[in-house]
């Protein structure tokens, strides 16, 4: 018989992690083997702890859950990913699907939905919370009327990290320290981001970051 599903749990709130871990570890076929407090730590643990499934919060420091999921999907294609979030938000939901998540679970319904979502992910089946079905139908009916999202694909992963930190109010020196870059490199990334996205200043950049789900409104 195969062993229990090995789970990586990432959320920047320790109390939330403890509560979710209690739910998961109470099931004989599920076990939490690693915990992360931010997206960058989650990516590193995904490589070293060999989990079968990663459960990621969306709003986290350094890298968001969506950024972490994108990196995990590229580096570890066999890893299943679930998003666990407080946001019943169409944009986050569709972005989660785009970056490779197998499901989207609301924290308000975690005690009811999370176990089923984990088992569905391990069966290679998608898990959608009830409201997501309505969202998918509405998107299908309105397809073609939404703004083009190709712009977001033109920036690199590193530029996206810089974008998130700039939008959060960090100075170039602080960003350089956080990402182990030179200030000159950070300034170059910042200039490239503004040029690629057609933005003029930090205010427009922050608005873009909110729309893209990189920071909370």
Strand and helix order:
EHEHEHEHEHEHHHHH
Measured by DSSP, the beta-strand proportion falls in 5-15%
Shape, per Cα inertia axes: elongated
N- to C-terminal distance: 46 Å
Radius of gyration: 18 Å
Instruction: Write down how many β-strands occur, each being a DSSP E stretch of 2 or more residues.
Output: 6
Strand order of the largest sheet: 2-1-3-4-5-6
> Which sheet architecture does the biggest sheet show?
6 strands, parallel
Q: How many individual helices?
A: 10
Helix content: 40-55%
* Overall mean confidence score, pLDDT: 84
What ranges have pLDDT less than 50 throughout 5 or more consecutive residues? 144-153
Q: Structural class of the secondary elements?
A: alpha/beta
Brief description of this entry?
With 217 residues, this protein is α/β, with parallel strands linked by helices.
Task: Describe the model.
With 217 residues, the protein is an alpha/beta fold. 51% of the residues lie in helices and 13% in strands. The chain contains ten helices and six strands. It has helices spanning 14-25, 39-48, 65-75, 90-98, 110-122, 130-141, 157-167, 172-179, 183-197, 202-211; strands at 5-10, 30-36, 53-56, 80-85, 103-106, 127-128. It has a six-stranded parallel sheet with strand order 2-1-3-4-5-6, with helices on both faces. Helix 7 (157-167) crosses helix 9 and helix 8 (172-179) crosses helix 9 (183-197). It is elongated. It starts with a strand and ends in a 6-residue tail after the last helix. The model is unreliable at 144-153 (pLDDT under 50).
